[in-house]
Amino acid sequence: MLTSGYKKKQGRPSRQIALCVVTSCLAWLTIQIASIFVARQAGIFWLSLCITASVVSVLVSMLILEKPKFSDFLISVQSEIDKVTWPSTAEVKRATLVVLVLIISMACVMFLFDLVWQWVFQVIGFLQIYRR
Asked: Which of 16, 28, 76, 93 falls between 20 and 30 A from 58, CA-CA?
């Protein structure tokens, strides 16, 4: 995956995800900067510029993520992710249902409060004064 292989077997999924994210961000940034200086054309020059920017982004990402400080961080992230107990599908469905019911009920309560306050303001004549 990476050039020198600092702790090569550890934290592999998180290192690969970080490599993809950093490479994508750097490639996008490089292409955006290049588009400022070079007119976008559908020619070979623009295509080669984009490919070059992507290759340079991959190399820079590999150099950045190969530093021991970043590698150790990503290895510790992976070890913490491995400790997580993920909920089952049934638990996720129940929790989603609870959230949806609470959101709908709170929307109904807010609607009723709005109706009550609108009625109160009409009774005391506040809305007629405010509209003048």
From this structure: 76
